[in-house]
Amino acid sequence: MGKKKNKPKFRCKSEVQKKAIAANYARMAAQKKRYAPPPQQPKPQPRSSVTPKKEFPDKFPFWARFKPNKNRTTLVIDEEQVKRKNSDTVDDCFVHREAIHCDDDNKYVLSGDYEKVFPNPDTSDNSPMYLKRPHKHPKRMFAPHNKNLTMPEDLRQRYEKNNVKNKGDDKKE
Questions:
Q1: Is 132 exposed, middle or buried (0-12, 13-18, 19+ CB in 10 A)?
Q2: Which residues contact 107 (CB under 8 A, 6 or more apart)?
Q3: Burial zone of 130 (CB within 10 Å; 0-12 exposed, 13-18 middle, 19+ buried)
Q4: How far, in Å, are 28, 29, 48 from residue 25 at the CA level?
Q5: Can you tell me the distance from the alpha carbon of 93 to that of 84, in angstroms, rounded to the nearest whole number?
Q6: 99-118 in b/e burial notation, b at 16+ Cβ within 10 A?
């Protein structure tokens, strides 16, 4: 690969050439204006000036999107406060289990590291869904899920106990 040589800046050799270039630009602008799509009318604004933001459900477990990992589906099972390793700050975190798809003959699935979810919460998907082991990440890394996924009853019963809060934490005196 050779280096690109610096070419000298183009300069018109005569006034006739300048006028021809200007005329060509004017002709192209007129064509562009002629074939431009008609201007669209502005869309009507919603009645309230603030668009409601989709929030997380109040009860565990629920489905969400895990932002850092390609917005993958994840099952949020609890929330905890976790102290950061290198500082004294404490983050509000969700405890979650990421959902994946893989073949039944996959060595990781056969080793027992993943739990198969039956029936698949996404009714439009035929391949089985598996849950990874629990991890903790800050709440800002999660987004509400955009699909309406069903919750298998065994998962609901297992993680419903996380909805019970300490009575001492709720009282403000």
A1: middle
A2: none
A3: buried
A4: 5, 6, 46
A5: 11
A6: bbeeeeeeeebeeeebeebe
Please answer whether residues 101 and 108 qualify as being in contact, where contact means their C-beta atoms are separated by less than 8 angstroms: no
Task: Choose between 41 and 25: higher pLDDT.
Answer: 25
pLDDT-based confidence at 166, cuts 50/70/90? very low
Comparing 91 with 47, which gets the higher pLDDT? 91
Assess contact for 116 and 130: CB atoms under 8 A.
yes
Total Cβ atoms within 10 A of residue 97: 21
Q: Quote the pLDDT of residue 60.
A: 86
- pTM of the predicted model, to two decimals? 0.60
Q: Residue 118: which of 150, 76, 74, 165 has the closest Cα? A: 150
Query: Six-digit token pair at 166?
Result: 């300490």
Give the torsion sign (CA, 8, 11, 17, 22): positive
What pLDDT, on the 0 to 100 scale, is given for residue 33?
76
- Tell me the Ramachandran region of residue 112: left when phi exceeds 0, alpha when psi lies from -120 to 50, beta otherwise: left
Which residues share a beta bridge with 155? Answer: none
